[in-house]
Amino acid sequence: MNPDITRERENATFNVEKLTHILDGGIEKTKRRREIESLVISDPDFQSEDLNFLSRSERYDAAVKKSAQMILKLREYGISDPEEIYCYKSVFRGNHQEALGLHFSMFLPTLYTQCNKEQFKKWVPLAESFKAMGTYAQTELGHGTHLRGLETTATYDPATQEFVLNSPTITSIKWWPGGLGKTSNHAIVLAQLHTQGKCHGLHAFIVPLRSMNTHIPLPGVVVGDIGPKFGFDEVDNGYLKLENVRIPREHMLMKYAKVEADGTYVKPPSAKLTYGTMVFIRSMIVGEAGHALAKSCTIAIRYSSVRHQSEIRPGEPEPQIMDYQTQQYKLFPLLATAYAYKFVGQYMNQVYHRITGDISQGDFSELPELHALSAGLKAFTTWTASEGIEVCRMACGGHGYSRCSALPDIYVNFVATCTYEGENTVMMLQTARFLIKSYQQASAGHQLSGIVSYLNESERRLQPQSVSSRPTVVNVNDLASLVEAYKLRAAKLVEVAAKSIQQELQKRVSQEDAWNNSAIDLVRASNAHCHYVVVKLFAAKLGEIGDTGVHSVLSTLALLYALQGIQQNSGDFLQTGLLSVPQLSQVSQRLKELLAQLRPNAVALVDAFDYCDEMLNSVLGRYDGNVYEHMFEWARRSPLNKTEVHESYHKYLKPLQAKL
Amino acid sequence: MNPDITRERENATFNVEKLTHILDGGIEKTKRRREIESLVISDPDFQSEDLNFLSRSERYDAAVKKSAQMILKLREYGISDPEEIYCYKSVFRGNHQEALGLHFSMFLPTLYTQCNKEQFKKWVPLAESFKAMGTYAQTELGHGTHLRGLETTATYDPATQEFVLNSPTITSIKWWPGGLGKTSNHAIVLAQLHTQGKCHGLHAFIVPLRSMNTHIPLPGVVVGDIGPKFGFDEVDNGYLKLENVRIPREHMLMKYAKVEADGTYVKPPSAKLTYGTMVFIRSMIVGEAGHALAKSCTIAIRYSSVRHQSEIRPGEPEPQIMDYQTQQYKLFPLLATAYAYKFVGQYMNQVYHRITGDISQGDFSELPELHALSAGLKAFTTWTASEGIEVCRMACGGHGYSRCSALPDIYVNFVATCTYEGENTVMMLQTARFLIKSYQQASAGHQLSGIVSYLNESERRLQPQSVSSRPTVVNVNDLASLVEAYKLRAAKLVEVAAKSIQQELQKRVSQEDAWNNSAIDLVRASNAHCHYVVVKLFAAKLGEIGDTGVHSVLSTLALLYALQGIQQNSGDFLQTGLLSVPQLSQVSQRLKELLAQLRPNAVALVDAFDYCDEMLNSVLGRYDGNVYEHMFEWARRSPLNKTEVHESYHKYLKPLQAKL
């Protein structure tokens, strides 16, 4: 064990294990999680070469191998609870992706929820035994978030009782679905349903892609890998071009909407029924943001405690880089953010499960709020976490750039969340739509409840108009007071956006153009709303914590999170008159004090995330802090070192020398 | 040609070609650049598979091949002017790196400037004929920016008149030098010189690494590749462990410092002589920031003009995504930034050459200012450009994540500049040291000249103290007035940092701790200083432009750049009383107008950068806008598509199915 990091651990003022239990949701959950993790770690089948040393085809091969092993192991161990499967996967995936990911996350759940009884009986056993390996093909080459724009057609032919599927244009080629390129032999294809000469919009169809015996693509199915990406090297994201592919009528998923044998279309009872999965996945991503940032902070903070560089005082030994104020200022607010997002993720999970219960009882009342919240928070947390991962990487200096740090892998695999499952700016505008609607309702005299109740007329009237007209009441040392300030900032910025729309309308532009001409303000309002929600939920979490030591250090983190957000958005807080100029100087001063206060607990705070070395897969983030010897050992395994002299010397350099 | 992009070009209000000449530095330079580019483009030897489809070893192989070809071609065409070589390389490298990069950029220049006459006669011909292929080995596993911390030793042995080189610890292993792992047979090694029982600090030595006949590493030389990185896959960044490696005394570079046969050490005449290269490389990086961002904007803006998505008005066709205000708000300020950095790069280049002239006359007076400016601007521009590239990538939605967009390549290869050639935060603090020193000189009554003259006492006394005590004079529609505002902000933030240091000193902490405890403020001050310099230089450039159409569009860009900087740092401008709250609303409004105003010129403004398709290597950024058919064509070439059924199906999936 590196003595520096040992000393850090000795200096901690709280019980790390207790904080781990809080993050896991209880001592029993920690225990079970560790049991499952050790199943993977101790399994010789999962010991493999660092994926970074392999070619893309080898990486895909290794991922398929691992997925196939995992399926057998999960059965062997009798693990079937989704949370436990998720936990198992988190370790075995490390910072990479799973080859059969979409079979689990989209193909199976769609079959479970959208098959009618006969379909369920046929398809679920096929899928559960992996005879049918599937993916979910929605996005097209020219069409993403805007579903109405999708072009793939499924035209019903009553003569044969079949649907004929087609990709009528280049832009209609299905593009991006994970596992579509090489792995899947089936896909759930989203297509515009045409029957009896009429288009009824998007519906889901089970389309066989490859022979279940030979795996060779079926006639009319042009399928393949879309090529290398920023990350996800292990995954065969694919394309699919359908050329008059005929499937039986029963391949349309018919739990809700139906096409009868003669071609008669039967509408689904509610459009909201397909809403749920999307909301669930976005909620999950919020937790993933906390996860990715927590891993990154673990690596950067551990490395900062063993890395010595430059000098603060001449003649003295080089200090740990964590002693530099600038390093603390980079990393500790991100550490606070990671905790914040982990807690928000827990909250979203709880709300989702509660509301899902309501929905199954036919109560959709809370869905719009959850939909708006999950959209905005997905965008808010993935943007900030992505930036934060890169800050962590660069805080490791040059070595962060090496794949041995794991930070490049964490970044490229996480940053995809900013553009998938709803592009972030579009997400922010969806939340804004809910905020503006709520604002208008409140203005019309409705009393709002829930998280947007701050938009109520009565509350708004209590808001500050400007610095001069009222005394400043925010106390920068009091978290509750800061939550209030964030709330008022959100209220103010929603109002600014609403007024921008009004002003545009007064110029006699259309409603739609007024919206687009106010889009910058709308995104800003959503952002402030989400920021408020995060600060509020972090503060609320503190109320649940009994242990004094843990409560104290989390309170410091929460205060740091809130104050740093104010400093970074100081223009908003000054502009809305919520803070005065002298108070902002106070904020800066207080931030520096909090950094110093957190310094002795930094390593313990990342230890509490409890990522084993096998999950981090980072030489810089090793628990024992023995970084340099392992970097050397890792480098020697680089494929370029397999031979002393690379063949290119004989092929190009020696001939070059001969010619000059 | 895609009709959307044709229409964009028709709508431009200025002459694209004239703007290209300004960016190149004159019509003749444009002509010559295009001649050189066409040499590469038309050369069948440079047509190769997309590097993204290859394994790392294949990429290295391809890069060595290309470099060897390039060396022969440059001789064949008689291209020897450094600027022309740079231009040639820019095309042939595309978004990737060159295998022999450090031989050109560090090995040869060091030989040119630090060899004495005899050494020059021996080594320069060897290096120019590539018999000696070299790199520059400074950074060590445990030591980066802080040169005094380097541990490699060169101990003089008068008995044999040799230096004995050693890597005494794990942390002293040389790490990162490009071309060190497999390519080079020599390195200039920086080591602590020991002679006659005394250490004389860092000196440079020519160390043979591999046999010039067989390329096999020499005895005592442990050398290899450091493994895969975020980018730079083509480069064999290497490690080097020296175990009692003996080199003749004449292998120490002796133009300035010397060790005589008996071991007597002779000091160099000035320590500043090695300063120049560092300053030059950092200045170059500023231009590279403009370059990388300009490429990214070209891709994102062209794609935004042909990409249709969602709807603004219901029932109408999907609009070009460039019509969304949020998209304009992401991209146009970055476009303005790319122009700004290109102009700053031109300026730095000119200043460097002027000052180099002075230095060769023995006049070092301007060097500290240039050193401080190049350090800060390197950090300021690389940070913002890196973030900007990612914004451009994400503005392309999901497709930006594909390697076919080229944006991942541009990002990973550029972002390394944030941590190499001086880690950015350290760079900012170096600039801050200069600013604080200047501030203290001014406070002591000295009259400062040059770029920091705004810190003079007399000027500072004219500055605003707070909103209430003086009328606001900034005119948000006038660029000159905004330059003034940026200047006053910088002055104010330098003062804040200086006062923080004073306050710390009053608490009786040491000078060094006071500095560290004010580091956040110091970085903030440097940042404001650099921002001021960029705005000022952009404004100054406008004065050189005669053409009305070009002047008009560049003025709009400059104003956009300045106003967006104010909006993003509105806290600073409010806090220092430079702007009032109503003025900030004006800024927001004005920004929206400028976005709309730039909209018709956006494509023309990126066309003016004049990157040929071969340099961009981006399917999304194609000049003809025919994106989707080429994406499909590119994807089909993916190595995973070489076979219809990937071998992993037979190896893992079929057996899995059999077991379930």
Automatic annotation (TrEMBL), chains A, B:
All residue ranges annotated as the Acyl-CoA oxidase C-alpha1 domain in the record: 275-436
Cellular location of this protein?
Peroxisome
UniProt domain Acyl-CoA oxidase C-terminal: residue ranges: 478-656
Coiled-coil region(s): none
The Gene Ontology biological process terms listed for this entry are:
fatty acid beta-oxidation using acyl-CoA oxidase; lipid homeostasis; very long-chain fatty acid metabolic process
Q: Which SUPFAM superfamilies match?
A: Acyl-CoA dehydrogenase C-terminal domain-like, Acyl-CoA dehydrogenase NM domain-like
Boundaries of every Acyl-CoA oxidase/dehydrogenase middle domain copy? 136-245
**UniProt domain Acyl-coenzyme A oxidase N-terminal: residue ranges:** 15-132
Q: Which InterPro entries match?
A: ACO (IPR034171), ACOX_C_alpha1 (IPR055060), Acyl-CoA_ox_N (IPR029320), Acyl-CoA_Oxase/DH_mid-dom (IPR006091), Acyl-CoA_Oxase/DH_mid-dom_sf (IPR046373), Acyl-CoA_oxidase (IPR012258), Acyl-CoA_oxidase_C (IPR002655), AcylCo_DH-like_C (IPR036250)
Q: Name one GO molecular function term.
A: FAD binding
Protein's UniProt keywords contain Phosphoprotein: yes
Main subcellular location: other
Cofactor(s), by name: FAD
Instruction: Spell out the GO cellular component terms annotated for this protein, sorted alphabetically and separated by semicolons.
Output: peroxisome
Q: What pathway or pathways are given for this protein in its record?
A: Lipid metabolism; peroxisomal fatty acid beta-oxidation
Name the UniProt key words of this record, in alphabetical order: FAD, Fatty acid metabolism, Flavoprotein, Lipid metabolism, Oxidoreductase, Peroxisome, Phosphoprotein
Q: Tell me what reaction this enzyme catalyses.
A: dodecanoyl-CoA + O2 = (2E)-dodecenoyl-CoA + H2O2; decanoyl-CoA + O2 = (2E)-decenoyl-CoA + H2O2; hexadecanedioyl-CoA + O2 = (2E)-hexadecenedioyl-CoA + H2O2; octanoyl-CoA + O2 = (2E)-octenoyl-CoA + H2O2
Name of this protein: Acyl-coenzyme A oxidase
Q: What is the lineage of its organism?
A: Eukaryota, Metazoa, Chordata, Craniata, Vertebrata
